[in-house]
Design brief:
Layout lengths: L1 H22 L12 H10 L22 H5 L7 H15 L10 E2 L14 H11 L9 H4 L2 H13 L15 H15 L8 E4 L3 H11 L5 E7 L3 H9 L3 E6 L10 H13 L3 E8 L11 H14 L2 E5 L16 H7 L9 E6 L13 E6 L3 H13 L5 H10 L10 H27 L4 E2 L8 E2 L2 E2 L3 H9 L4 H13 L1 E2 L1 E2 L12 E4 L7 H19 L2
Helix pairs in contact: 1-2, 4-18, 5-7, 8-15, 9-10, 16-19, 17-18, 18-19
Amino acid sequence: MRRFISHKTINLISKTTTSTVSSSSPNSPSLSPNSPLASLLRFFSTFHPSSMASDYSTTPITIDNINPKVLKCEYAVRGEIVSIAQTLQQNLKDNPGSHPFDEILYCNIGNPQSLAQQPITFFREVLALCDHPSILDKIETQGLFSADAIERAFQILEQIPGRATGAYSHSQGIKGLRDTIASGMKARDGFPADPNDLFLTDGASPAVHMMMQLLIRSENDGILCPIPQYPLYSASIALHGGTLVPYYLDEQTGWGLEISELEHQLKTAKSKGIDVRALVVINPGNPTGQVLGEANQREIVEFCKKEGLVLLADEVYQENVYVPDKKFHSFKKISRSMGYGETDISLVSFQSVSKGFYGECGKRGGYMEVTGFSPEVREQIYKLASVNLCSNISGQILASLIMSPPKVGDESYESFSAEKEAILSSLARRAKTLEDALNSLEGVTCNRAEGAMYLFPCINLPDKAIKAAEEAKTAPDAFYAKHLLNATGIVVVPGSGFRQVPGTWHFRCTILPQEEKIPAIVSRLTEFHKKFMDEFRG
């Protein structure tokens, strides 16, 4: 605003002085340098946009002297394609009809509520009551909120010091909420969970960063990660100065995780002097959507046990399983059922309120369960958590609610179950529709979406398209994704952002757009793909 006013003022003064000079007689005195008008002009000229140009050559921080680990870090999910999409979205707002589509369809990120998925009523009722506890005593509340939501809010507030959701909590999270989560984990797995093993975090991402901080000492420390992988892991490893040791999922077997591949990559890393410290497993898979079988999980546990690796289990999509022949099993359940106890294997599992059927991404709730670490190491993990004081309280409450939803007999049970079923069944239908559509395209193959929120089709691009991408200095799948965006408004993430077998090209597409919009997405994508292939065929 100040720049706007000063610019207008300068223009007015300039016109005035010009008018004064032009209208004066040859004998009229020119504008005196010491006149009030000249002084005012000099003052406002310091705010002129031209004097505020982006010349930062004298500032102490440049792109050449910032932390090189930051430069190395990449996060494709919110990368260049999304920036282009946001520009196009602004163009559509400013100039309706300026593009061959009327909206941007963000299929790039697992952000359900941004694509019109509604929050779960019970969860939001409890959150509202906890954030504004004075209404609990009002008579009108009984008619606006369900009885079990009111009761749960009272229970939670009793567990919060000062009954204040705006206050700091224990650095691991509110003890009563951790008790609730631990009970939910026991009900899920059939094995006890200790609330003192739980660290509540702002989503799962800070928990992953915390473990990378703990495990990585130098670039000689390696973390085995699946390829394709969720870019959080490569970014976090880069930021903390470690080395990502890739193991490739087998696309031909539905993105299978082969122990022989783990053994090969571990041996190769060791031959290069890399001390591999942990194995990351994402189940259900992101971006690949596969769900691991129990037998495979047991093999993975045995591998970590034999090789002395920490097992980092990303289980944030545990509620998102869409096929009848697969079921989610936590690695904690698998390891305990194999007879391995607290001191036998180091295991960290991650959960989040952002995924599942709840999709509360913006509430930033999550947790990690840390088992198989000595008390001395646990103290260091607690110290890392303490640096951030605590995670936000709304996220903590939601983390407890997803692990302890309404039960049979509760007033909210039927509506809760109906909302959950509607969301998950719709996601399954959307996944199947998009999977079939992708497999119908020339040169495209797509494994079935067993779980999670994504499809990761392989695209066999014509040589002419690959050459054009090289000339444009971009990856071929990014070249395809940019063309798709500019022609249809559909935003996907190039597979190169997740890493992939060299010489193969993919893109990740969420199944989250509203179900009624899926046919339009299929139609736009099909039409675009045909034109693209025809253009670059030869």
